[in-house]
Amino acid sequence: MMDIQILLVVLLFIAALFYIGRMIYRAASPKSGGCASNCKCGVDFSTINPDKK
């Protein structure tokens, strides 16, 4: 009975390590497809006049 409990604890620990590692990997990996989530790529800068003070 004790061996099954140890096995379950070890499996849960490995699953938790995998989950945390996957979260860190996804946060650190570069985003595919142009802009990141906080990028302002959709802003239209054509109406801004840089010479105007």
Polypeptide structure, described:
- The model has no long low-confidence stretch (mean pLDDT 80).
- The protein has a domain of 29 residues.
- By secondary structure, the protein is mainly alpha-helical.
- The chain contains one helix and no strands.
- It is rod-shaped, with a radius of gyration of 24 Å.
Which percent bin holds the helix content?
40-55%
Shape: rod-shaped
The count of β-strands is 0
- Tell me the major beta sheet: none
Tell me the Rg in angstroms. 24 Å
Q: Specify the structural class.
A: mainly alpha
Low-confidence stretches: none
The span between the termini is 79 Å
Order of helices and strands: H
**DSSP helix count?**
1
Strand fraction equals: under 5%
Write down the overall mean pLDDT.
80
